[in-house]
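Exam revision sheet. Question 4 asks you to relate a sequence to its structure. Input first:
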Amino acid sequence: MNKRFQVLAMLPAMIAVALAGCTLQPDYHRPAMPVAAKWDTDGRTGMTAGNGSYLGWQEFFNDPAMNQLIGLALANNRDLRVAALNVETAQAQFHIDRAALMPTVNLSASQTSEHLPGNLYSTKSTGPVTYHQYDSSLGVTSWEMDFFGRLRSLRDQGLESYLSSEATRQATQISLIAEVATGYLTLCSDKALLDLAQQTVASQQRSYDLTKRSYDAGVSTIQDLAQAETTVRSAQADVAQNTRQVRVDVDALRLLVGTELPAGLLERARLDKDWHFPLTPAGLPSDLLTRRPDIIAAEHTLKGANANIGAARAAFFPSISLTASGGSSSSSLGHLLEGGTAAWSFVPSVKLPIFDGGVNQANLDIAQTEQKIDVANYEKTIQTAFKEVSDALAGQSTYQDELNARLLDTAANQRNFDASDMRFRQGVDNYLNVLVAQRELYAAQQSQITTRLGLLQQQITLYKVLGGGWKG
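Answer key, structure tokens:
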């Protein structure tokens, strides 16, 4: 074999030796769950146990208008685009870290020309002379042979960073879906409050007109007329306030969606639809949380810190690098590849840390401390997630009871208003009783709308905090 290729032929064996080297990363063990085995519920949901697997968002959200908005947001929301681009950046960085394990092989060719004048002592006998030299080589430049796993630890850290970014993108997507759904429900609720305020204005305007006629006839007092007018003005103020809030809701949805809203969306926004979300399985185990994207991201960050300890430990051991090249040199381009033109170099180097003023030890201490911090952050993320699910389950089990009570309260207030209005028209009671009954009915109707919104939002909150829904 030609000598120029002998060094290069050794490279595969060297690579195999280097890749078979040891690693100094500590063994990874997932920290124990710092929460109870399952959530403490009062058992009143009446729902059967499910398998806890996840639904696609199209299955969980089945309202056409809401699904259309979510689809637009997933295609156009800028925060989600940034999260996706962060994943691409982390992926590219991982490829860079992985490439460091392999040698960089370069092919080079060069020409050197030199002209010497005749007055130099070396050319006085021959006169001016021009020299030419042609070189070609294939070589490896400063390849670190990873006997102690430093580069592999950095590669593993890059991989975990990439996976953490991907999980963060998934968490961002789930949050975006929940925000769009919640925003649409808020629009439906505020539109219902606007419709109620408009109906109340019309109803109380009729009462005011009736009181005005009674006053003109000398039956009602100026106080009755003033009290009737206050209810009208208050409802008119509510119409203005709710009109403004509906516009704010539309603007908020437009920002989330990232583009113009579909035509006719406002007309279709109704809270009194027959909304259906999947039932929440009873007895969900808390280890279901480990599939939440933010917790997955936190664990990948922890694994990355674990790999960083391996890289810090490897800094205490010798670093072995190799530079090698083989090729041809000739004074004539036509003879560059002929026999006798071979040229090669082989430059291994070893760097052994003797005294660094404690830098390597400090870097190891930092890596170990950061790993402890990441363990605490991972556990805190699980505890926060457990609390969020527990709060959402508590809200789900109580909002339905509250809504049932609100419905009964509204019905009772309606009966009270009807009775007070009839007694006033019959001349049995004064208008003050009607006014009080109207205000109480109006407040009960508003509370009923707000409570219905809260109940529906709890379902969306559960979708978010359980990491993307469930199957019952």
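Marking note for examiners. The chain has two domains: 1-17+104-144+319-352, 31-101+146-317+366-465.
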